[in-house]
Write a structure and sequence with these properties.
Length: 245
């Protein structure tokens, strides 16, 4: 059920391209089983292109009317998200709160495996994932999409209470964008899966919803015109530990 005590405006940004995104893409292209990244996932930084993408988004937000800018930003604790927020909000008087509930989905035993690696090294989990589907499958030591939704529901409820009639911008990850849309628009599993299978969430894209007659209505989705305007390439690489398939 859609809520009627909504924020005035809600936006969500996927972090800019990270060094992990690029490494994961190359590993998939080369047919490797494992993704070789020297940092833990929480410490993976932006690439130089990711930094440029964030600066481009920051210019787009700064050019908007003051009444159309966010009043508060809530950021995933992962380094790539915090770096994105810092670049986007540079020079803007926007308070920033880091909240662990915006962290990326945890994949446990599937972490740092390519699609080929999951099939070769975790065949039982590969079969179990295909049976349960993305929405409900929880890898050992990891989270299902429904697990992530539980923490996002709690976060959004607190934001409504703490910032009544406010404008809030979230900085998170690929799954964050899809699942915030699921919550904001009251989607069901089938609609979410169709959305996930037909859209690749771009790095430093922005999606947003504006309150109309007490209900959040879609405004932008996976929007990257700010990157094109700045001559900055848009990238759609998957997260380091994105679930294959």
């Amino acid at each position: 059920m859609r809520r009627r005590d909504e924020l005035r405006w809600l936006g969500v940004v996927r972090h800019g391209e990270s060094t992990g995104n690029r490494t994961a893409q190359l590993a998939e292209q080369d047919g490797l089983e494992r993704i070789d990244i020297p940092q833990r996932d929480a410490d993976v930084p932006l690439s130089q292109l990711g930094q440029d993408q964030a600066v481009a988004l920051g210019r787009w937000i700064a050019a908007r009317e003051p009444a159309q800018r966010p009043e508060v930003a809530v950021v995933s604790p992962y380094r790539r998200a915090r770096q994105t927020a810092a670049a986007v909000l540079a020079g803007l008087d926007v308070p920033v709160v880091v909240d662990e509930r915006l962290r990326d989905r945890e994949l446990g035993v599937l972490d740092l495996l390519t699609a080929r690696g999951v099939a070769a090294l975790q065949p039982a989990e590969d079969a179990r994932r295909r049976w349960h589907g993305k929405f409900y499958y929880r890898p050992p030591g990891g989270e299902s999409w429904t697990d992530v939704l539980l923490r996002l529901r709690m976060l959004l409820r607190e934001l409504r209470e703490d910032h009544p009639d406010g404008r809030v911008l979230l900085f998170g990850h690929e799954a964050t964008v899809l699942l915030v849309r699921y919550l904001a628009e009251g989607l069901d599993e089938a609609q979410l899966m169709t959305l996930a299978h037909t859209n690749r969430i771009a790095n430093c894209s922005i999606s947003s919803w504006r309150r109309v007659d007490g209900v959040l209505e879609p405004e932008l989705f996976n929007h990257v015109e700010h990157l094109h305007a700045a001559g900055t390439p848009a990238t759609v690489q998957e997260d380091v530990h994105a679930e294959p398939g």
